[in-house]
Structures are given as C-alpha cells and as structure tokens.
Amino acid sequence: MDELKLYTYIAVFGSFALYFAIAWWARASSTSEFYVAGGNISPLQNGMAIGADWMSAASFISMAGLIAFLGYGGSVFLMGWTGGYVLLAMLLAPYMRKHGKFTVPEFIYDRYYSKTARVVAVVCLIIASLTYIIGQMKGVGVAFSRFMEVEYDLGLGIGMGVVWVYAVLGGMKGITYTQIAQYCVLIFAYTIPAIFISLQLTGNPIPQLGLGSTLADGSGVYLLDKLDMVVTDLGFKEYTTDNMGGTINMFAYTLSLMIGTAGLPHVIMRFFTVPSVQAARASAGYALVFIALLYTVAPAVGAMARLNLLNTIQPEAGQNLEYAERPQWFKDWEKTGLLKYEDKNGDGKIQYVADKDANEMVKVDRDIMVLANPAIANLPNWVIALVAAGGLAAALSTAAGLLLAISSSISHDLMKGILLPNLSEGNELLSSRIVMTVSILIAGYLGLNPPGFAAGTVALAFGLAASSIFPALMMGIFVRKMSGTAAIAGMCSGIGITMLYVFQHKGIMFIPGTSFLGGMEPNWFFGISPNAFGAVGALVNFVVAFVVLQITGPAPAHIQKMVDNFRIPHGVSAIHDH
Questions:
Q1: Helices marked H in 55-103 — which ranges?
Q2: In this model, does residue 194 exceed pLDDT 90?
C-alpha cells in the first residue's frame, strides 16, 4: 500500500470510527432527543453543529471550484449563503424557538391553523431537501472514488451506511455531537492546505491576506493580476470581472440564495435544540464565526487553485505540457472521469483555451478543484488525506441534517400530526427511524441516478426553499393578520412558478408557445437564470398571499394574539401587567 493510500485510510476510517463512537454514546431514547436533542445543547456546541450542517459538500467541495472558474461572479455564493444565515439568525430563528415546536411544518400548522398548510409545507420541504441532498451524495461518491480508489457506486453505498448508523441511532442528539466532530475535521482539512499554498505562492501564511498579496517569486506582481494575465492569454474573461450574466441576474441570484438559505428547514431545526431564545441568538453568533473561518478562505482557495492548475498545464507562456509528461494527480483524476483529455490536433500536447473547438482538455469538473488542489501544489500526502476526510465530513454532516428534516416532517408532521394522532411516543420514535432508513435509500438512489434538472447544482434547492418556505415563515411572524388560506395560496404559487420556470429551462419540460420577457438567453425572464429564479418565485408568493388575504379576510383573533406572544420578548408582558 502506498503512503497516500495509508494516510487516507487512517484519516477517513479514523474519522468514521469517531462518528460511530459518538452515535453510540449519544443515541436517542425519546422523540424529544430524536427531533431536537432534548433541547439542552449549549450555544457553543450548537454553533459548531450549525457550522457543519451549513458547510455542505457544496460549500467544501463546490464553492471554491465555482469561484475558481467564475472568478468575481462566484462571490454570489459567498454573499448569498452568508447573508441568508444572517437573515435566518435575526428574523426567523429566535421567534420560532420561542414558539417551541419540533419542526418547521409544525410551526406553520400552529401559525396558519390548517392541516392543509402543514401538508403543503411538508411537500415543499421534501422537494427542496431531496434536491439538496443529491449534491451531498455526489460529493461522497466523488471523494470515495478518487481517494479510496473504489467505484463511485460503492463509495456512495459506504457513505449511506455511515450516515445510517449515526443518524438512525442518534437522531438529532447523535447528529449534533457528530457534527461538532465533523466541523473540527472539515475546518482543519480546508484551512491547512490553504495555508500551505498561500505560503508557496505569496509567502503569506494567512490565505485571506495572501489573495491580495504579491507573488513570492520577487516579480512584485499581485496574485490576482497574475491570474488575470494568465486567463486572458488563454482567451477567457478576466478573473476579476463579473461572469454571472449582468447586474440583474447577479442581484436575483444573490437574493435567491439568501432567502433560500433562510428557508432551509434542516438549518432552522438546529435552533430548536437550545434551551432558550437567548441561547438561540448566542448560538447564531458562534455559528457565524465558525462559518466565516471557511467562507473567508474560499476566495483564496478558488483563485490559487485556478492559478496552480493553469501553471501546471502551461508552465510558461506559449508552452503547453506534453500529455505523456502529465503529472500523477492528472492521471489519478482521469481515472474518475471528472478530468478528460482529447488530443484533437494530434500534437500530443494539452492545450487549454477558451475556444471550445480547440480546447483539448475538454472537461475539468469544478468539483475536483478543492480535492485536487493539494496534489497539484505538491503538498505532503497527509494533507491530501486530510482533505479527503474533510470533504466526506462536509457531505455527511449536511446529508444527516437533511435526512432528519425529511424523516421528522413525515413521521412527526404527517403521521403523528395528521394521519395517526394517537401514535405513542415509542411507535413514533420507531416510525422516525424507519422513515429515516427509507429516506437514506431514496437519497442514495438519487445520488446514483441524479435527475437532469438537479445534477451538479444545489442552487435549485435554495430557489425552491426561497419561493415556498421563507415567505410563509416571514409572513407568519411579521404579518399578524396573514391567514392560512392566503399562505397556502402563496406557497403553492411560489414553488409552482419556480419549478415550471426551472424545468422549462433545464430541458425537463417543454411547453409550446411559452415565452418569458427579455433576457440574456432565449426566454429568460429579464435575464434571470433558472438558478436565480427563486427570488421571483418568492415575490410571487408574497403578492398572491396578500391578494388572497384581501379576499378571504384576516386570521382569527386568537391566532393574532399567538403571533403577538412569540413576537414580544420574554418579561415584557409581565412588566406591563405590573
């Protein structure tokens, strides 16, 4: 066994053993522990768990890859996801924690006094969560297939088994403590290679500062200026320009990611695990710090990975690498099919240019950039192994949170809340574990056979959450008169128009005669891309809800009083009474 494989086995299976031990120690014995970890997680612990839940395979594996290829335009993911967390922490989580329920659909049921609203919320949650989980499963498969040198399918199956053990056994309690360990693994795995590479390229050990520093070769050229020169020489747009299709699309994309993030149920659920509203606010602050540790490093990782990749392929201006002399990392990633080469002119050289007809390295999957970056930079094998464990930790932590959100919505909201109201706590706990198992199997199937509209992107999940769940929660908290009928109409119209638009433009559904106004591409609505359309869907949701409210009338007086109660801070009513 070679050194890299040995280190990888130690890092990956060592971390798995840790997760299993935690799952056994923290196994759930009640529905309260299964759904909300008993409600007694400390703010610091919850902040770390939120950080792991947040930093999915999309954040760990894909985000820096997107930034590497999109350049400045890739900042929409940083702004959208971080801004969305702030929205969630300030506008939603404290009020929902004060209301004190287990799940998002349960909150919607209480607020909108409607079983139909609860069912609609469950359907929206499942659609968004299943779409999101496909990306996590792809991350697991990619990491296993490359670093453990097993088939993608087998790697995905191992990942499913790991999640099953600690998610089914421990529920939210097991997931919480496992995610704390996973956060530690993934943050070290992300920052240590970035420190090494920043030192190599700029002499500055802090990646955030290295991104704006001059190169260590003594030329006095700034790293980003050098990257701009390299990519423009190859015919690409400057790295530091907007590549997202214009201001309107960039604004809509950022807004869709923000409000979609704030509406993702698996993250909202984390705020139900702390003992008080004050603890929910404190855990939000801790989580923002833990998230920032990775998110501020991502732009540096993306830029440095792109520069290293291009310098390897084209060591000097006008000189291309001989294919026969390609480095080992190139050969390793070719085996996965995520890096492909085709010698179109028969010169035996790798040419990577903007002209697709002449581009002989025809495919560089963006998802390989973070995982391949340490090998491209010739970092030690233990660093490469650490990155493999980090990528798996990121994918597994978010997959577990999503699966819990799906299973709790089915077992607690549909079965206990509507179909079988007399279900005992023991049977509810058993049904939760059965539903979780079925959800893992479905998620695994989607990871093996991703539908065309969702493969390679999680932006769609955010768009679906943005257009359905976020407006319902916002109006439920801040519009005391909002009625159940109006909220249901808003949710259905918001997610309906978003899915119609996305499927139309992803080639899943073609409707003759359909035409949207204007756009950068045929039928793009004012130049807004499908992955950014969640913002428009949310607007439709709000408008329809308010129109229906005017027609059907306000919520009953007792519901309006309930809204006032969870809006008023603790102690205010008591002071007023005296």
A1: 57, 64-70, 75-87, 93-99
A2: yes
Backbone angles phi, psi at 214, to 5 degrees: -80, 160
> In the structure, what pLDDT confidence band is assigned to residue 7 with cuts at 50, 70 and 90?
confident
What is the spatial distance between Cα 56 and Cα 186, in angstroms, rounded to a whole number?
Answer: 10
Reported as type and span, the H/E element at residue 494 is helix 484-505
Cβ contacts of residue 543 below 8 Å, gap of 6+? none
The pLDDT tens digits of the residues spanning 350-395 come to: 777 666 665 555 567 777 888 888 988 888 889 888 888 888 888 7
* pLDDT of res. 139: 74
The pTM is what?
0.81
Task: List the structure tokens of 573.
Answer: 């009513």
Other C-beta atoms within 10 Å of 354: how many?
A: 12
Q: Which pairing describes strands 349-350 and 363-364: parallel, antiparallel, or unpaired?
A: unpaired
Per-residue model confidence (pLDDT) at position 459: 65
User: What is the predicted pLDDT for the residue at 362?
Assistant: 55
> How close are the terminal C-alpha atoms of the chain, in Å?
75
Overall fold of domain 3-305+380-573 = Sodium/glucose cotransporter (1.20.1730)
Nearest to 160 by CA among 392, 388, 336: 392
Candidates 38, 328, 323, 345; CA nearest to 173 is: 38
Q: What is the pLDDT of residue 242?
A: 64
- Beta bridge pairs of residue 306: none
H runs (alpha helix) in 2-114: 3-25, 31-36, 43-54, 57, 64-70, 75-87, 93-99, 104-112
Q: Are 362 and 389 in contact (CB under 8 A)?
A: no
At residue 203, the 3 state secondary structure works out as: coil
DSSP letters along 440-461, please? HHHHHHHHHS--TTTTT-SHHH
Instruction: Write out the two tokens for 230.
Output: 């390299």
Which of 120-124, 341-345, 375-379, 517-521 has the least mean pLDDT? 517-521
What are 274-309's pLDDT values in tens digits? 888 888 888 888 988 898 888 899 899 989 988 888
Question: 45 in the Ramachandran plot: left (φ > 0), alpha (ψ -120 to 50) or beta?
Answer: alpha
Where are the domains positioned within the chain? 3-305+380-573
User: DSSP 3-state assignment of 322?
Assistant: strand
Closest CA relative to residue 95, chosen from 504, 509, 479: 479
Q: Which residues contact 490 (CB under 8 A, 6 or more apart)?
A: 471, 472, 475, 541, 542, 544, 545, 548
- Between CA 239 and CA 72 the distance in angstroms is 6
pLDDT at 148: 72
Question: Are 220 and 51 in contact, with CB atoms under 8 Å apart?
Answer: no
